[in-house]
Sequence to fold (202 residues):
Amino acid sequence: MKQMNIAYAVKDGLYLNLTNRCPCACTFCIRNEGDGVYGSSPLWLEHEPDFEEVKAALVAADYKKYKEIIFCGYGEPTEALDVLLETARFIKETSDAKVRLNTNGLANLIHQKDVTPLFKGLLDAVSISLNTSKADVYLNTCRPRFKEEAFPALLEFARLVKNHVPSVTMTTVSTTITHEDEDACQKICDELGVKYRIREFN
Ligand code: SF4
Fold:
């Protein structure tokens, strides 16, 4: 039986891994690194946890001691939207931790409706992977199953979610795109009224 690693700590943050599902197949994703990684990684969930399992993992990890709890993981957290919302509500009701969602920004396409109002009062921050300012580069790099619909949808998601969540940031990864592309990403974020952050490559 494979190990289930729903909650894992990194510094002051506790990361939650809710699902393996994702509508993308990014060329840089660890999910592409072969069967060994897929099959043996402790982050590969043997089944998708329900809320009670996530709650048990939070309690076992002593979640109240963390400053921030982050929905992240091996897949796209909003694929497991109901569990995500129930978990965020539980954390908010029982601790002082800030709650952040790391996402590819495609939740509204996944669910075929605007889900951003559901995050109100439950998330303190959303971090969206922008990856590039160029729609064609995005399509070839992230390979979303929604094809050309995806890039405009993630920009729209950023614009909408900032009405419901206090801190919205879009990110790219340093050294993966040109400085010119980074400048264009900054411009996109300025126009959307969200923050832009270049994450370290690791
Ligand atoms: S969006 Fe994230 S989980 Fe999905 S394929 Fe890309 S890197 Fe992997």
